[in-house]
Design goal:
Helix content: 25-40%
Strand order of the largest sheet: 1-2
Oligomer: single chain
Structural class: alpha+beta
Radius of gyration: 19 Å
Largest sheet: 2 strands, antiparallel
Number of strands: 2
Number of helices: 2
Distance between the termini: 55 Å
Amino acid sequence: MAKVIIKDLAKSLPKRSRISEKRVVNREGKVVAIPTVDSNSPHFSSDLHRLFQRNVAKARRENKRRFGSPDRVSEKA
């Protein structure tokens, strides 16, 4: 028998992040998006933590693509 759980979904949704992206042109002429965090936000620490997690995930994906391992470069490289 399936268990029925009644829960208010509005309370379980995460608060909207205050991370915004600014688009700038780099030296090569490409448009890149730079994530920014509002330092006066009451949720500054959680926004900074979320941005850090996103950066680590991106670095791990890039390492996996380049070197075959998300953690570190092998001794052969």
